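Worked example (supplementary).
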Amino acid sequence: MAKVLVVTSGKGGVGKTTSTAALGAALAQLGEKVVVVDFDVGLRNLDLVMGAERRVVFDLINVVQGVAKLSQALIRDKRLENLWLLPASQTRDKDALTDEGGGNIIADLRTKFDWILCDSPAGIERGALLAMRYADEAVIVTNPEVSSVRDSDRIIGMLDSKTVKAERGERVEKHVLITRYDSARASRGEMLSIDDILEILATPLLGIIPESQEVLLASNVGSPVTLNNAASAPARAYTDAVRRLMGETVTMTVPVERKGLMNWLLVRRAA
Amino acid sequence: MMNLLRFIGGRSASAPVARERLQILLAHERGLRGRPDLLELLRAEILAVVSRHIVLDPEKVIIRMDRSKHVSTLEVDIEVPTGVERLVAVAAT
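After joint prediction of all chains, the assembly is encoded as:
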């Protein structure tokens, strides 16, 4: 049965879009049929991170308004044949997306995919609410930083009250994904520890994505980090997270970058 | 060097401070969540009481709350339409 998963955070800039792309690609790499949906109407970026920005013809709003069919708006990934993107509109007003319109599209996507990943806009306004509205599960992207943890707590409260599942008396399954984690700083007491964050948010952990240069390198070239460099620390962390989403038990570790001599030389040359 | 200085100076790590601040703040914010906005509630009830006696423009009822370190104030500003003084005087007799 299809699963609708919203990637949300409240705070901006914590890595929602990067994580949506990486999780979506990692699921597809494991054989699942996946669509990543950009709900950030007016400020779309998932197309850019996925490297499909020049292939967008129709978007979510066109489908909602009946201008295009869903099949016309879906963009198939060039690297993974079971990975698709539904882009947001860049030009339309964010009010063009309605609760009913979003609901219809999600219902349609459920019949075609195993996973529907919804990339939420930042904030706690209408756009963020629409992105989480029909979710079965939620990934709350959190940085080890006070403002991000506070906003995550707020979003958790909304997932428990404003979603269709919550209104039916059911629960949206929630997972915290910690991004930009720096083990060295945390061990020196300069950064909130994983335990601190989990205790405060009282929500299970999906994964720990280490702070890494690989994340920026991947977005520069428009490739999810799990595809761009599958052996890199963040890619392995995202893949572990996805295995947990699929129900596997994977030991929680913070992957570290493997630094070989060749790698060291290449980094030196590049610098 | 900074780390070394910190180590010598015995300056404690900042993460426990972050953790404590968050715990206090979120305990407070979670308490407020789900409850209707206090100011909105006050506004509605004050408006209902005053409207029983005076015809009011709901837009002209302003409720403001200020919290400072020592004093907190609740400011209620109701604009009464002209001619109402006479009505009130008649009602009192």
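Two points are worth noting when inspecting this output. The interface with chain A takes residues 3, 12-16, 18-19, 21-23, 25-26, 29-30, 33-34 of chain B (CB under 8 Å). Chain B has a mean pLDDT of 76.
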